[in-house]
Each structure stands twice: as C-alpha cells, then as structure tokens.
Write a structure and sequence with these properties.
Layout (H helix, E strand, L loop, with lengths): L2 E6 L2 E7 L3 H9 L2 E4 L1 E2 L3 E5 L11 E4 L3 E5 L4 E5 L11 E13 L14 E6 L3
Antiparallel strand pairs: 1-2, 1-10, 2-9, 3-10, 4-5, 5-8, 6-9, 7-8, 7-9
Length: 125
C-alpha cells in the first residue's frame, strides 16, 4: 500500500493513497515541497503537477479526504468550513480529485499558518 507523510511545522499527517490517476501522478512526483496557504479551515499548497478533474471530482469533501485542486494545481486538505461552506460542510473552491485518505486527524492542521513550509514524502514502511 502506498502511504505518504505530509509534514508542516510540528504537524505530521499520514495518508494512504487511493487507486486514481491523480494519486499515481502525485506518487511519481514525490517528494513535493511547497509553502502552505490557508482558506478558512483548509490548508492548500501548489505542486509541480497538473491534472484534469476526474469523473468523481467534487467540491464537498469529508474530513480526512485529501484532494487535488485542478484549477490551482494544488493539494487541498479541508478540515472544517471554508468561506463558501454551507451548514458546516467542507466545501473546496471548485471540484477536486480525492486521491488519498488521512490516517491521522487532519484537524491538527489548524495550527498550520500561511507561509509555513510543507513536505509530502513517501512514508516509511
């Protein structure tokens, strides 16, 4: 099973990749280093990748789902409401490809601030 570690400051989140074209692209591009941006209760960061929306792309995700935002070539991790959420949902800016599930609590990302360095690396087996 393919697992990654997303590290930002003191926060480390492990995630298991799904079997999707976007997950395959991200896996092949590891390691990815970026700078965190925040939008409500979402952390996102640019990647050197691009992808088109997959058939099941969606803008509302569940906590723990890790997405790729095709409109911004970015990984997006929502952990609570964003400025466009309704009724407490986690609504991303536009349809995203869900490519991984967090194995750790993504609400830990509340302590990540814009400008912090983020690394996405292959997790130790």
């Amino acid at each position: 099973m393919r697992e990654i570690l997303i590290r930002a400051g003191e926060v480390a989140i492990r995630a298991r990749l799904l079997e999707t074209p976007t997950a395959d692209k991200i896996w092949k591009a590891l390691p990815i280093y970026a700078t965190a941006q925040t939008w409500g209760q979402e952390v996102y960061f640019g990647t050197p990748l691009s992808a088109t929306p997959e058939a099941d792309a969606r803008d509302v995700v569940k906590g723990g789902e890790i997405a790729f935002w095709p409109d911004g070539d970015a990984i997006a991790i929502g952990f609570g409401p964003t400025p466009i959420s309704r009724n407490g949902e986690i609504r991303l800016a536009s349809p995203c490809n869900v490519w991984a599930h967090a194995l750790d609590d993504v609400t830990a990302l509340k302590s990540v601030h814009a400008g912090e360095k983020i690394a996405v690396i292959e997790a130790d087996s």
